[in-house]
Amino acid sequence: MKGLTVRWSLVDAADGVEEELAAYVAGTSHARFTGLSGLRFKTWRTRPGEWFEGCYVFATDEARAEFQRTFTEGVSSSPGSTIIGSDPVVIEACDIVAVAEGWDGFVAAPAY
Hints:
The chain is α+β, with helices and mostly antiparallel strands.
């Protein structure tokens, strides 16, 4: 499987940006990526005051490359960049070595 990490710095972002990002994910982004062809799954992660990140896992090299190409072309107008006020500091492809599902199972939800 093929991964992609997109990370924005929150160091200079406005106060309350984490709540705005969480609302955007729950209200729009989660639905956009649910069922997306070529995507196995996506997670959204944050360390308040430090960074916000999207972690994508794709089924094929081609699916990742196409998503990365189109995302990078429009990165400055992407919702994450618009909400945060800056472009990502990292757009990095990677290989996924393994995924384990724990005893309590996997729960896909727009917010936790």
